[in-house]
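#onboarding

Welcome to the new folks! Below is a worked example of what a typical request in this channel looks like: someone posts a single protein sequence, and someone else replies with the predicted structure as tokens. Don't worry about understanding the tokens yet, we'll cover that in week two.

Example request:
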Amino acid sequence: MSITAISRDWGVNPSIVRIVTTDSLATITTAAYITGQSDEIEALNFGAFEWLDTDTMLISYSNGEGLFTRDSSTEAFVAQPASPGTLSDTLASGTIFVGSAGNAATSVAMSGDTTITNAGVVAIGASKVLSAMISPLVVKYAAVTISAAQFNGAYAAPKLLVAAGGANTMIILHRVDLLMTYVSANYAAGGVTAIQYDSTANGAGVIASTTLAAATFQAAASTGFMFNTGVVAQTFTTCANKGLYLSNITGAFTTGDSTFVAHVYYSIVPTV
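Example response:
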């Protein structure tokens, strides 16, 4: 694979050097490409080729054609951008064409929340699509860690799961999967447990979920608990702009040291 033709158009300024090569764009723009082709160039030119600083190369390569200059420091050809209003035949690996401030197609690398490979694969960064960006019609999700102290204290100080959505909105609970990682001590005492609207102590808020008996949480092994949407009527006057909290209705748990993660599935809908 090499340069198969080279000639200069004399009498024009800047001088144009016409080159045909069987190599690819990636190869001809690699450092030391020109010096690596010196034998072929001398054979085609019947002697050493005289490069001028003002030369513009019109190169036909294996996967396209375009205008180039010669970088004498790297001895490689450098692709030139297209004239304003035209689209270049060359494009740097992994980049896309974007209209510049001067309305010219310009090669740029994708950045920010998305990237693209030279195979055309687009990826969205981790944690870039957030619940706040999603339509209210789509179910949202939150994972909330709950310490043993917070679970034991949820009777007097309900644990926040989802913050209020703002004025004229209401959280609609779909499901909560409460996963307990057992440590060493069982929970004791306690009371009926549920998800409620607002942080009212002693489980006195409007219940947003089904309820589970205290004995359910006294297991001596890692266990999962599911709360479905509640059966209590949810009215705008009592539930609008209220957060969701985990609480106990009839008493506080004691002694337990197991931890939890609450996986909450919900929607936020407008009330007006």
